[in-house]
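Sequence in, structure out.
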Amino acid sequence: MHAADAGRVMNPMQCRGQVEGGVAQALGATLFGNVRVDATGAVETAAFRRYRLPQYADVPRTEVHFVETADAIGPLGAKSMSESPFNPVAPALANALRDATGARFTELPLTRDRVWRAPAPSSGTRRPPGSR
């Protein structure tokens, strides 16, 4: 689920597509984005065949909700939806993992190996799911 402050939404289908695309891009960066550099400084993941991108099956259905406000600068009160859907995805996933595991994740990507190797929280510090 993604709530977006898009100002006045003039074309809901197009705006929803922008949000869904931004979420997909953010999921890719959060879960798979890993530019590897060798000892000489050369990028090892310079080709798409060596760099993991999310596929259709990797991206869950995104339920989009618009909060309609008015922007004095944008055309007819609209706001840009090109980059803003990207921003909350990594922190939301990292916080969900903290709720699930008790470990705080501060580096991306949140790969399976990184989550598996996360240090177990010390006794008494694990919070029950949903607690603040």
